[in-house]
Amino acid sequence: MLGITLGVIIGVLPGLGGANGIAILLPLTFSMSPTSAIIMLSCIYWGALFGGAITSVLFNIPGEPWSVATTFDGYPMAQKGKAGEALTAAFTSSFVGALFAVIMITLLAPLVASFALEFGPPEIFSVYFLAFCSFVGLSKEPPFKTVAAMMIGFALGAVGLDQMTGQLRLTFGFSELLSGFDFLIAVIGLFGIGEILLTMEEGLNFRGNAAKINPKVVWQTWKELPRYWATSLRSCVIGCWMGISPAGATPASFMSYGIAKRVSKRGKFFGKGEIEGVVAPETAAHAAGTSALLPMLSLGVPGSPTAAVLLGGLLIWGLQPGPLLFVEQKDFVWGLIASMYLGNVVGLIIVLTCVPFFAAILRVPFGIIGPIILVMCAIGAYTVHNNTFDVVMMLVFGVAGYVLKKTNYPLAPMVLAIVLGDKAEEAFRQSLLASQGGLGVFFSTKLVSTIMVLGLIALFWPLIQEFFSRLRSSRVAT
Amino acid sequence: MKSLNKGALGAALLLCGTAFTAAQAAWEPTRTVEIIVPAGPGGGADQMARTVQGIISKHGLMKQSMVVINKAGGAGGEGFLDVKTAAGNPHKLVITLSNLFTTPLATGIPFSYKDITPVAMMALDEFILWVNADKPYKTAKEYVDAAKAAGGSFKMGGTGSKQEDQIITVALEKQTSSKFTYIPYKGGGEVAVQLVGGHIDSSVNNPIEAVAQWRAGKLRPLCVFDSKKLDYKDKIAGDLGWDSIPTCKSAGIDVEYLMLRGFFMPPGVTPDQVNYYVDLLKKVRETEEWKKLMSDGAFNQSFMTGKEYLGWVANEEKRHQDLMKAAGFLAQ
Fold first, then answer.
1. Contact call for B74 and A163, based on CB within 8 A
2. What is the CATH topology of the domain spanning B33-125+259-327?
3. Among A29, A30, A24, A28, which residue's Cα sits nearest to residue A9?
4. In this predicted model, which residue has the larger pLDDT, B136 or B208?
């Protein structure tokens, strides 16, 4: 309980993500037994996962990288006065995603671990490729603006040390730029500060303050949710797959949102406050976040930054993650899995009971809440690297975000490129090194060719659709 | 007038006196102490820093608390520059790995080990040549011969670019006139798993990064890059232990490489302040938890402080410069 409450608080503060939170609290657990320590820490992890959605929906500020896709429909819903519905949908689908992943871990752990071993650099690149492809053409903006925004994102993502050659790129001799632009700072600035500037321009009030505070909202939303079972199931599968292959929760949420928009009958309305657009990314992100723990336990490779810190904890408690952990430390592993079930159920209950309170935040006049958000953003940006320069960076990104929004350049592709650009580049170059420069490596095994073909289909889907509809109409004509 | 002068003199004396007694009493931290880790969370340096933090808080070795902060940007350059610019701050420590030498040499950032104050060497980390256990190579010689026959298509995975793993790879190539394709990854754990999955042919992982896979029978150690065998007798995989791994030299590969795991402080701190941390770290080394970490990771338990430590670091810097020059890794 304590862990989850702490976790939610940590998740609400943008920047102070699960990884930082667990790193700060890790030393407290050294005097506990490993099993109770991991339960405490994984509860913080769940709490942070839940909490990340709150600021995305209410203020358009994603608290975690994987909450970005939640803002696309969550925030418009809040603006329409449906913040309660959006939060309920977000929390419930997080729960569904996590539960699906836990069940999978419980039943299929050894099988899944061996699947993770299949992923070398070409496979990982193909997964990122699929993530980008399923996202192209999503935006309402003109394609050239989307591409331009994505390219700016790639350029920003390239700043810092080049992992492949060990050379510095685009730092122009500034030591502040050594570590590149952290994604979180860009997001807090672009979305958070940009949004505050926009709101100020529009007359200092939230468009979402019509939110009704009604405890029944939870039940009403629940009645509506089973309709989206197909989206949920698909997102669960995407999430688990992304979590196990070390791609992680962020591509999972983007990919799931992209595919849901393509497949859904109401796809046209995505981005304007569609509940399905909240369900899809949240389910996938949490299925991924949960299943990311599996490769950590069975292979010793963390699937997310938070898992990396937990991994450090395991070693200090004298547990050696690896193929034998499941055999030698049964108590610990099953204790952890039990805590996943428990943590999720308790977490869901806590956050759901708070939905009306969270929604009520929007009733507070902007004059009061605006400065508070600003301070929270600054704290968040500072905690990423404990660096005041980052706060300045955040403000610069904020102004940039405002200008981009005013000129109708979409922010989402840019953010996607900053997050995944350098990772995709790394995997691409690792693959080419291994293949001595031959592009054939991306079609060399069944697994990688399947994913690449899926990516290409996703990329050209609008064309394919048009082709089929023409085919159909020509048949009707003849 | 005279009495006033006397009073002033007395006050001055008194002030001197208090300053003197304050200096006499051993220095102690007065606020939270930061450990900067110039690498990401989950890696070897990070694990060691967090273990030290855990031991200190568990045994109450220090009145103030301690926090670990990762500053991994620019291959650790971010962390080192942070310590360099914190001149005179006695509440900051930095734990180093080989990037203390390799990062400034490869990137040309304005930093050198001379810019910071050495505190203590805690241990040296070993390097082992690993292959997938499904492959037929039983000795380092068999493996290198196979690599030679393949003419450069064998893939060696390692952490980072132009850092320790790649330096060892280049030294190995020079010694045996073989050729490998070096593929850089983000972390050692990732490299070990890529080796298990068969995406690379070998790695030079630290013991602690690959031990779990060895125990599970997925990886096989071929030789250790040290002048003598490892001194840990516990059985790890079947009847094999760390001490049954031959040295690379005995297999005809005359390459030795050990990585520093030690602490430094910002420039301009007083000897009292350094001594406080030396004593603190000595206490850490005596705990059971520390000994367990050492044997889990088969560390070389050398401990050095003061001049001896500084001399060792100066030597290593020279050696890295030579190695990296020979490999063509120096910044232009």
1. no
2. D-Maltodextrin-Binding Protein; domain 2 (3.40.190)
3. A24
4. B136
